[in-house]
């Protein structure tokens, strides 16, 4: 499996392509904008997009979801607790930040412990709220990586002061869920560089193991 990170828009949000180099079966994680650029990559690489996976519903992670669905026919997948954010330009901050009213309707809702399978590949859904009410992470045990959205960053953590956020839930998600993954698990965050669980346990100044 190959993972391609493609930062988009002025927010430098990390859109990810996770795909099988042989069969071209793929998913897109958090397509935050620049749909033409993302769809061009899909076309040029012959990717067969099975789903658009949303870690959460903030505008900078969802802007290109509908355009990718329109071109590829992929299903949009999110957590059921994120439905209000996805459907509200006020809550997802699109109206305030961009002047546009951006909404996304999920085709499938998955929750903690569910497994999304495409072709021969599996992604486990981990409910990781705190940044938002319905935040989730997508973990590939086979590939040793996890797409965590804005829950955890390289030596930092996500904000918890937005609508539906909770500092207590954020740190619980990190310490009780993500930090239980193997230390060599690669963490693909919504912004910035990739990191590993082991690195964050050792060097993240915001998270203290108890």
Explain what the structure shows.
This protein has 210 residues and is of the alpha/beta class. The protein has 7 helices and 14 strands. The chain has helices at 35-44, 59-62, 65-72, 83-87, 94-98, 167-177, 197-203; strands spanning 2-8, 13-19, 25-29, 48-53, 75-78, 108-109, 115-118, 121-127, 136-140, 145-149, 152-153, 156-157, 186-189, 195-196. Strands 1-2-3-4-5-6 form a 6-stranded mixed beta sheet, covered by helices on one side. Helix 1 packs parallel to helix 3 (65-72). The protein is globular and about 45 Å long.
Q: What does the overall shape look like?
A: globular
- Which stretches are poorly predicted, pLDDT < 50 over at least 5 residues? none
Main sheet attributes: strand count, strand direction, barrel closure: 6 strands, mixed
Number of helices: 7
Strand content: 25-35%
Rg computed from alpha carbons, rounded to a whole number of angstroms: 16 Å
* Proportion of helical residues: 10-25%
Q: Could you state the order of secondary-structure elements as H and E?
A: EEEHEHHEHHEEEEEEEHEEH
SS class: alpha/beta
Mean pLDDT: 96
Please count the beta strands (DSSP E, at least 2 residues each): 14
Strands of the widest sheet, in order across it, are: 1-2-3-4-5-6
How far apart the termini lie comes to 35 Å
